[in-house]
Amino acid sequence: MAQSLTHGEMSLPADWRDLFALTKPRVMSLVVFTALCGLLAAPGSVHPVLAFSSILAIALGAGASGALNQWYEATIDAKMKRTANRPLPAGRLDRQTALQFGVGLAAFSVFLMLFAANWQAAVLLTVSILFYVFIYTMWLKPRTPQNIVIGGAAGAFPPLIGWVAATGSVAPLPIALFLLIFLWTPPHFWALALFVRSDYAAAGIPMMPVVAGERATRRQILLYAVLMAVAAIAPWPLGYTGALYGWTATILSALFVLLSAQVGLRSAGAYDRMQPEKRLFAFSIAYLFILFGAVVADHWLPL
């Protein structure tokens, strides 16, 4: 396997762990979980083997998106402390290998979904991969501070794909879950962007804190948190979910807005190591895991 050199040093040999790292496994775990919840919350039943194959296809599609993202952004990743040790900027893999791996994984994931589920789910999976790679990575991210807002649609597809894999059709609840993740993404990601702002500035990426400034970013975090809370609670009064999900969404969303207010109302420059921002970022991940778990629990244990 060919290797590229970084900083004039010999590259370390690549192994399976470097290919696995290309798939962004931590991001993939959230993708897989929300997709699984979408599938389990759908009406009817799916054969366990086909359900497993469908979720595997979504996981592989997410991994392919991550690999192609890292292939395209190898030079940018090398400029940021947070990403400098990834396989490509660290010189453990060459870009051609990453490209071939990503394209191959993407094609396999779509064909697996087609045979395991249905063509509708395969089309949605294809759209989500192409959206993340071409719309978000190549077009939006290097050009506009709204990159994570519009690009958030890519991460919102999994529960919708899981539902369609199980049913072959779209319904209001998975659309509501899509909207929830879409609105969750900006406050989640901008909380991170606030305490790694210098990284994005060094790489020339126009993230909101770099372009619009810290104060505007904080206001946007609070605004999107409120909109997200409304979207999260809405399925309950609309009759798409029961009280178990409804109360869980209400309590967790109130906490999310409270943490976002602590971030949003802070004075610019009040860093103290960005503790409120880090708390919001950590809670936002737990929030989505618990809330989607409640979707499934509400379906199987309605109150």
Automatic annotation (TrEMBL):
Membrane topology: Multi-pass membrane protein
Alphabetized PANTHER family for the sequence: 4-HYDROXYBENZOATE SOLANESYLTRANSFERASE, PROTOHEME IX FARNESYLTRANSFERASE, MITOCHONDRIAL
CDD domains: PT_UbiA_Cox10 (cd13957)
Matching Pfam families: UbiA (PF01040)
Biological source species: Sphingopyxis terrae subsp. ummariensis
Chief location bin: membrane
Residue ranges of the TM segments: 27-44, 50-72, 98-115, 121-139, 221-238, 244-268, 280-301
Protein name: Protoheme IX farnesyltransferase
Additional note from the record: Carbon 2 of the heme B porphyrin ring is defined according to the Fischer nomenclature.
